[in-house]
Amino acid sequence: MSEQQHTSTASRPEAVIAARDLTKRYGKTSVVDAINFDIAKGEVFGLLGPNGAGKTTTILMMLGLTEISAGRVGVLGFDPARQPLQVKRRVGYLPDAVGFYDHLTAVENLAYAAKLMGLGMAERSRRIAAALTRVRLVDVADKRVATFSRGMRQRLGLAEIIVKRAEIAILDEPTSGLDPQATIEFLDLIRELKAEGVTVLLSSHMLDQVQRVCDRVALFRAGKIAMMGSVAELSVQVLGAGFVVEVEADGAGIARRLAAIPGVGNVETLADDRFRMTADRDVRADAARAVVAANGALRRLSVDEPSLEAIYAHYFQATPSGGVRDAA
Amino acid sequence: MRREGSAFQGVGAVFVKELSDNISSVRMLMLELLIVVTAMAALYEAIAALRQNTAEDPFLLLRLFTVSQAPLPSFVAILGFLIPLMAIGLGFDLINSEHNRRTLSRILAQPIYRDALLLGKYLAGLATIAISLTALWLLVIGLGLIFLGVPPGGEEIARSLAFLVIAIFYAGVWLSLAMLLSIVFRSPATAALVALGIWLFLTVLWPMLAPAIAQAIVPPDPRFAALGLDTPGTAIWTQLLQRFSPNDLFGEAMLAVLSPTTRTLGPVFLDQIRGAVMGAPLPFGQSVMIAWPQTVGLIACTIVLFVAGYVLFQRQEVRA
C-alpha cells in the first residue's frame, strides 16, 4: 500500500489515467511491455502505431476486459482489475469496428446499453434522445441498425458514450473505414466532447486526423512506447526541427537578418529572393518583422507545420521494426 | 480477494432482451411449429387409440403422454427426441454470435460482469423453452378434456407437472451443452454441427453401442441364452452404459412418473418383488422417488456443463 501512495503522489495530480510498468504477456511474448504514461484530465491523447503494437491490448487492460500480467494502471483513481464496475461506469468505450444488434433500432440498441448502465426509464429516454440529436441520428432513430452505414454506426457508438456521460471516452480506430466527410464530422464530435471536459483517448492509423485533434500522442512500437509528447515536441525529437518557414522577399541582407532570429537553425537561400529556414518554433512573425526592418518587400511567408506523417515515416524507417505482430 | 459489486447486476436487462429476441425470432417459430405439429400428430393417434377402450383406467390422462400407436412413437418419446433439437437451436450461437457481430466488447464495457451476460442469456433460453413446454402441456390437458371427456384427477395433474419440470431440466442439459460449444467454437456453424453430432450420437447411436460394449465387458452366458433370458451381468452393464445418455435418463424418469405401475427401472431379483401387487399403481411420492436419481443426474449434468462454459468464458479474450 505504501508503494501505491508513493506513485500516486509522483504522478501528476490531475492525471485521470496513470499506467506504471503496465505489461501484458501471452506465454513468453510481451504484447505490452512495461509502458508508463499519464493522461491529464480534459486532454485528447492519441495512441499511434502499427497493427499489433499493443494499442488495443492497452485499452482493454484499462477497462478491465483483459488481465494485467504485471504493473498497474489507475483509471480515475480506480484499479480496473479490482474495481471494474467503478471504472466501466465512468469510462465509455467505442471498440474497433463497433457492432450493434442489426435487428434492433438505434433507440433500442442504446436503450439496452442504458439499461445495463442501470439508468431508469425516464432518464434513459431523455438521455438517448439528447445523444441522438447530438450525433445527428434523430432522423433514423427508429430505423434498424442493419441499414446503417459505417459512419452512422460509429456515431451511434459515440452516442452510447454520451448517454453514459462518460468522464473518459476511449475510441479505438474510430475513423478507419470512414469517407472523408464522415471523418470530418466525427472529428468535430470528438472536439465537442473535449470542449465539455471529457478526456479522450484515441487510437488510430490515420495520422493527419490524429494530428488534427490530439493534444499529445504516444507512438507504440512492438509493445513499448517509443515516443510521447505533442506533435511539435516529437518533430523536434525525430526530424531535428519543428518548423520550416519559407520567405519570399526582396531586400538586402535578408538571409543574414533571418538567421539572427532566435530559434532559427539555419537559412537556405533557394533563389535570390527565396529563403527556407528551419526553426524550433513558429517564427513567421519574427521573420516578417526582420524583412520589414530591412526595408524589404515581403511577398510570401509560409510555414510547413510538422506533419505527424513525416515523423512517423521517418521514425519507422530510421529504426526498422523487429517483428511486428499482426493484430488478431 | 472479493470483487466489488454484484455479479448479477444487469442479469435482468440481458434476460429481457434475450427473451424478446428468442420469442420474436423466426428460428423459434420454426422450432415451435416442428414440435407442435409432431406432438399433435402423436397425441391425435393416442386419443384415437384411447377412445376405443375408455375402461376403468384411473390414469387415462397420463396415457395420452405414453400411448404409442404405430407408426408414430408416443408423445413423450417425441419430446425426448425434439427437446434437445430446440435447446440446441436456441443455444448454439449464444456467445459466438456476440463475437461475430462485434457487440461483445461494447456490451462488456458497460458496468456489468461477464457472469450477467452468460447467466442472462442462459436463463432466457431456458425460459423460452419452459414457456413453450408449458403451452404444450396445457394443450395436451385441454385436448384430453375435450376428446376424452374425463376430468383429470389431482394425482394425474401432479404427475404431469412432474413431467413438465423434468422436461425443462432435460432441456437445460442440452442448452448448457450448446452454450458451452458456442463459447468453444468461434463459428456458429461449427458449434451447431458439433452439438447436433453429439445429439445424434447420444440418441441414435449410443443405445445401439451400449449393449455391444456391455457384451464385450460381460460376454452373454449361453445357459441364460438357452432359457431365452438376458445374462444379468450384461443387462446391468447395458443399463449402466445407456444411462450416460441424458436421453435415457429422461426416458426412465418419464416412465416412472407417467406410468404409475412402474416399480423399478432396473433388473430385480424375484425375491425383491415378493409380496408386491403387480399391476397396482404406486403412490405419487413413490414414483417420484424412483425417478429421483435420474432427475438429479439431469440437474447435475446441466450444472457441470454450465460451469465448464462459465469458466471458459471468464478466461476468454474479448477482442475479436
Automatic annotation (TrEMBL), chain A:
<dbReference type="GO" id="GO:0016887">
    <property type="term" value="F:ATP hydrolysis activity"/>
</dbReference>
<keyword id="KW-0547">Nucleotide-binding</keyword>
<keyword id="KW-0813">Transport</keyword>
<dbReference type="InterPro" id="IPR003593">
    <property type="entry name" value="AAA+_ATPase"/>
</dbReference>
<comment type="function">
    <text>Involved in beta-(1--&gt;2)glucan export. Transmembrane domains (TMD) form a pore in the inner membrane and the ATP-binding domain (NBD) is responsible for energy generation.</text>
</comment>
<comment type="similarity">
    <text>Belongs to the ABC transporter superfamily.</text>
</comment>
<dbReference type="InterPro" id="IPR003439">
    <property type="entry name" value="ABC_transporter-like_ATP-bd"/>
</dbReference>
<feature type="domain" description="ABC transporter">
    <location>
        <begin position="17"/>
        <end position="247"/>
    </location>
</feature>
<dbReference type="InterPro" id="IPR027417">
    <property type="entry name" value="P-loop_NTPase"/>
</dbReference>
<keyword id="KW-0067">ATP-binding</keyword>
<dbReference type="Pfam" id="PF00005">
    <property type="entry name" value="ABC_tran"/>
</dbReference>
<dbReference type="GO" id="GO:0005524">
    <property type="term" value="F:ATP binding"/>
</dbReference>
<protein>
    <submittedName>
        <fullName>ABC-2 type transport system ATP-binding protein</fullName>
    </submittedName>
</protein>
TrEMBL record, chain B:
<feature type="transmembrane region" description="Helical">
    <location>
        <begin position="29"/>
        <end position="50"/>
    </location>
</feature>
<protein>
    <submittedName>
        <fullName>ABC-2 type transport system permease protein</fullName>
    </submittedName>
</protein>
<feature type="transmembrane region" description="Helical">
    <location>
        <begin position="192"/>
        <end position="214"/>
    </location>
</feature>
<keyword id="KW-1133">Transmembrane helix</keyword>
<keyword id="KW-0812">Transmembrane</keyword>
<dbReference type="GO" id="GO:0005886">
    <property type="term" value="C:plasma membrane"/>
</dbReference>
<keyword id="KW-0472">Membrane</keyword>
<dbReference type="Pfam" id="PF12679">
    <property type="entry name" value="ABC2_membrane_2"/>
</dbReference>
<feature type="transmembrane region" description="Helical">
    <location>
        <begin position="116"/>
        <end position="149"/>
    </location>
</feature>
<feature type="transmembrane region" description="Helical">
    <location>
        <begin position="70"/>
        <end position="95"/>
    </location>
</feature>
<feature type="transmembrane region" description="Helical">
    <location>
        <begin position="291"/>
        <end position="313"/>
    </location>
</feature>
<dbReference type="GO" id="GO:0140359">
    <property type="term" value="F:ABC-type transporter activity"/>
</dbReference>
<feature type="transmembrane region" description="Helical">
    <location>
        <begin position="161"/>
        <end position="185"/>
    </location>
</feature>
